[in-house]
Amino acid sequence: MDSLPDFDDPSFQLKSQAVFVFSREREKEYAGRFIKDATQLAMIHDVIDNAYDLADGETTVDAASVCIENALLQGGGGVWEQAGSWLVKLSSKHSILDPIWSTLATNPKSTIRFRAAAHVVDMSPDARATILPILLSDRSRKVRSKVVGDLWVASCPDAAAALKARLPDEQDKEIASQIEEAIVKCCG
């Protein structure tokens, strides 16, 4: 039987301390700078707790997934952005979380689909490969424009094929022009 670690030993480190730069409480303090509503603040605090608990083996991927997805779907400004950033961080270790991006990208509400678009450049290449065709063909001009604009700013070479595939079907001339520019930038 494994013995418990010596928590008083200065060399002891929780897994979360090895994964994340700041402490749980420091992250919550930082989150509070952007969110003043108590309900919304509690929602992002739950995301932070689930992220740290997942890293420390104190919760399951499924439980963390439910919490993060809820914050992305129901959270107001400041919450959904931070929840998306936590999803990006956690997905690097737990790719099983990537389907949350598909849930957002296929939501009936364009405001929710926009939330996936806002994180497309930070997603893993595998998640981006799945999500890009969905978002680039979105019926909302705002969603398509967000994806293409962000890909132009933060060049993602793996996105070039999806951009090239979308270009012939893009009816909006301004977005088509942005796609051409993003392709050049991505192929760089």
UniProtKB/TrEMBL annotation:
UniProt protein name: HEAT repeat protein
Record organism: Allorhodopirellula heiligendammensis
